[in-house]
Amino acid sequence: MEQLSINHITKRFGRQTVLDDISFTLAPAKIYGLLGRNGVGKSTLLNIITNRIFPTSGTVKLGDQDANDNDDVLSRIFLMSETNLYPKRTSILRMFDLANEAYGQFNYQTAARQLKEFGLDEKQHLSNLSTGQQTIAKFVLALNVDADYILMDEPVLGLDAAHRDLFYQELLKSYQAKPRTFVLSTHLIEEVQQLLEHVIIIDQAKVVVDDDVQNLLERAHTVSGPADQVDKYTAGLRVLVSEDLGNIRTTYLLDDLDDQRVLPDTVELGHYDLQHLFIYLTNGGEVKNA
Ligand SMILES: Nc1ncnc2c1ncn2[C@@H]1O[C@H](COP(=O)(O)OP(=O)(O)OP(=O)(O)O)[C@@H](O)[C@H]1O
User: In testing the pocket of ligand 1, which one of 10, 40, 282 has its CB within 8 Å of the most ligand atoms?
Assistant: First the structure.
């Protein structure tokens, strides 16, 4: 399997530059998170990767083949999106058949089992389904289509907590049975953190993080203690934000701690999670008084 590379993608809508020179690579058989605040351009980017809309400039390539208008390449990338591309009277089974015609080798057996687990029937029409049920039909389709790169835009939109949990389990099962690349674009960062190997965060039209989740979280340190001691200890390191509670300051770092720094007895180190990292990175760093 070849890598999918996104090269210097810029997208403007009129005067608004939504994506500004975005580049990153998706490797085969990995689970990615594509994260960003509302309206940052995640759906736009996923639509560009799958040739549904055109970039202002830049290219998408699978190996050395350009994806633009290339059916060979596009038949290996699938996008599950919020947009309903099907006519109103389409049944779930018809949707599966269309995917089978376009991509081949649709896994009807697993799809039937999954639909049953989620309480749906393949004869049901999309137009008669609730928002959450439409999401279920779409991700069952996405999990069983024969493509190397499966892009999922808001894959748990409208799902209740039990169904979200079941979806994460089914995604992992599907990945283990047949490793391929998944890109999950979601706002439920806390829930997907365990699934993700790699994360791409977009902020203000740029890629601000492109890193393995484990590497990233190893650099996500909290430093708490008296403000002056915390500031002395964190001097020269990348501080995302500091919060003050009385005279105790907690500073959130995204950096390696070198051994030369002497940790005072009054200062404690800890870690924080991906959701907080996302919030602090995309809010701009500042000292807050809690
Ligand atoms: N066809 C269009 N014409 C003009 N502006 C557009 C168009 N499509 C998207 N935009 C704008 O581009 C920006 C990015 O939208 P996009 O839907 O890609 O964001 P997103 O990151 O997926 O957001 P969300 O997380 O809220 O779903 C928004 O400001 C949106 O208004």
Answer: 40
Which amino acid would we find at residue 118?
F
Query: What's the CA-to-centroid distance between 60 and ligand 1, angstroms?
Result: 19
Residue 186 CB less than 6 A away from ligand 1: no
Q: Please check whether residue 201 is in contact with residue 209, taking contact to mean a CB–CB distance below 8 angstroms.
A: yes
**Ligand 1 in contact with 43 (CB < 6 A)?**
yes
Quote the CA–CA distance of 241 and 183 in Å, as a whole number: 28
Query: Which CATH code for domain 4-213?
Result: 3.40.50.300
Asked if residue 205 has its Cβ within 6 Å of ligand 1, the reply is no
User: What residue segments make up the domains of the chain, in order of their start?
Assistant: 4-213, 219-289
- Spatial distance between the Cα atoms of 180 and 33, rounded to a whole number of angstroms: 14
Q: d(Cα 108, Cα 112) in Å, to the nearest integer?
A: 6
Residuewise pLDDT in 10s, the chain (290 residues):
799 999 999 999 999 999 999 999 999 999 999 999 999 999 999 999 999 999 999 999 999 999 988 889 999 999 998 777 777 788 999 999 999 999 999 999 999 999 999 999 999 998 889 989 999 999 999 999 999 999 999 999 899 999 999 999 999 999 999 999 999 999 999 999 999 999 999 999 999 999 999 999 999 999 999 999 999 999 999 999 999 999 899 999 999 998 788 889 999 999 999 999 999 999 864 445 44
Torsion region of 31: left, alpha or beta (phi above 0 gives left; psi -120 to 50 gives alpha)? beta
- Ligand 1 atom nearest 38 alpha carbon: 26
Ligand 1 neighbourhood includes 13 CB (under 6 angstroms): yes
